[in-house]
Amino acid sequence: xxxxxxxxxxxxxxxxxxxxxxxxxxxxxxxxxxxxxxxxxxxxxxxxxxxxxxxxxxxxxxxxxxxxxxxxxxxxxxxxxxxxxxxxxxxxxxxxxxxxxxxxxxxxxxxxxxxxxxxxxxxxxxxxxxxxxxxxxxxxxxxxxxxxxxxxxxxxxxxxxxxxxxxxxxxxxxxxxxxxxxxxxxxxxxxxxxxxxxxxxxxxxxxxxxxxxxxxxxxxxxxxxxxxxxxxxxxxxxxxxxxxxxxxxxxxxxxxxxxxxxxxxxxxxxxxxxxxxxxxxxxxxxxxxxxxxxxxxxxxxxxxxxxxxxxxxxxxxxxxxxxxxxxxxxxxxxxxxxxxxxxxxxxxxxxxxxxxxxxxxxxxxxxxxxxxxxxxxxxxxxxxxxxxxxxxxxxxxxxxxxxxxxxxxxxxxxxxxxxxxxxxxxxxxxxxxxxxxxxxx
Length: 441
Ligand code: FAD
What we know:
Strand content: 25-35%
Shape: globular
Helix content: 10-25%
Bound molecules: flavin-adenine dinucleotide
């Protein structure tokens, strides 16, 4: 027997149907003006902007998690400067009240039919879609790693499950190699693997264990950082602190029984591996766009990322779809700071599209990475698509500074929870223009 509930309302002349069809055979179906998939940094901030513009429940957010995490804080959690609990808030408290929260996982997209299906089989129709699903962590792609996490000394700031083990590993550190890895895939916050290392190294200094530790950064990359200005500064830091940097080293296996980590040497065509003993192993896992997205070739590029225009953030094949954040093809460093620079572009351009106007707002690739180098110092990298520094403060931000550290530790979390998630923070471009007397540089 069919039960149909239908309610109709009108926004600015355009009709909106919220329909709930339910039968024993039929699927449940709902329709919204805007559907946002993912309620993380990007999804929550964009949904907040639109739900203050549109009537109640005209925006829906599809998000399965109970807790919203401010992930940048995990660097501090790993170093014992913050507690994990401080990095999370109930999802229901951060998502905009004016929007409907569909506590579900999106499992299939049908962009030609303006609909998606959730894991429970619910059908969700939309006029406009914003995809903000972040990245998935592929720890299981490294042989032996899932098991190794159950043994001492193996940790990762990238997951709530293992971030607590970073401090534990430092506390238990006796002597040997402290190895920090960087995978052979794009990652969120490309500076975070190094931050874990610098803080750990300073922990060992503070606790008189540094002379017993051989600290090393084994990275799949061929450079320490992608922007020369900051790479130069970081090279100085590793040299001064006697940290070994091994380029083109990709972690492929962990052997917890013998406490060994196996690395493929990427610059060797024969695929030779090299094995290192570890006392502590901090793993940054390979990452990819969520499997649900990768499965949909219409939405994604060859690498599996939502294929959007790098300036307008509009999907290249489906004009009523926009993408924001880590899951997109945008060729910039994947950070919450980048998301802040993107959310107003999505908001403005989607509004223009809804009004039948030409999209005029352009994203410049702004991203930022506070490269914490210890318990009171930080290099504050900010740059655009071309790797050109876009520093907010009229000082040399490549220098290790206490002010940058304070901003990272205390100011940025407040900015995130209080302003960004409510749709009120669009990145520092206005502040930068004022501080640089209108030049924007
Ligand atoms: P997320 O915030 O990850 O949100 C994605 C959301 O999508 C999640 O809530 C998830 O549950 C949801 N989702 C996934 N699959 C589905 C599905 N099938 N259906 C529905 N919903 C789904 N950034 C900085 O700016 N500065 C830093 O210092 C910094 N440091 C970092 C340190 C660490 C250790 C980590 C892990 C990250 C750091 N970042 C930093 C990066 C930053 O957290 C991310 O870039 C940012 O959260 C990306 O936002 P997003 O909305 O794209 O993805």
